[in-house]
Amino acid sequence: MNIGSMLGAVEQRLASSRLAALAALWILLVAQVIWTVVFCVRTRPAFSSIYYPVIFLPAAAALAITRGRVRWVAALPRLLIGIAFVENVADRLGLLGPPGAPGVSWGDFSHFIAYTAQVNAFAPLAMIPTLAVLATIVEGTCGITMLLGVRVRLASAASALLFMAFATAMVLSGLSQFQYAVYLMSAAAWTLATIDASAFSVDVLLARTPWRTTAAA
After folding, report:
1. pLDDT tens-digit readout, 135-161
2. Nearest-angstrom CA–CA distance, 194 and 19
3. What DSSP state is assigned to residue 88?
């Protein structure tokens, strides 16, 4: 069995978990809506402090309502997840501006390492720089593959696992993951791994190329 066949088998296994993924998506969607409404009513936050759930909730709701059966609808949360990853990586590399600039969370890698220590408060301090580097590599890879649509199901599964790890680390460290809708994004990415979310993707372009069609035949 070659690598292509192995990856195809993994994608088929992912597709078989569609109902479970949709159930998780609905549960977390409702929980996120309730938290967001209560948080906004109580604190009247600035948009900049809550834009992740505000932007992602409609896309996640559309994905849940259509049950992933509309390909271009499924592509929306995929693109938003890819943008979120790429934006965060660009931020910590200083590409969006220096520390303290409007709309900048970190501004350089040293500030991101400090944030990594905060999110992983349970981890030994010696591990924090390594975790920061690994997180950046994985986020960058997932971001690019989700944006471009390369092996969408596998990229979505990797994104779901990364979001799950991030959200769980936040909870264990006493932080709220709801402000960034991390568990919801994890469930949405899991759902994307079980359906066809390949609209506007490299996967579609490759499937249409003559050499690919000939090789498949």
Report:
1. 999 999 999 999 999 999 999 999 999
2. 9
3. H
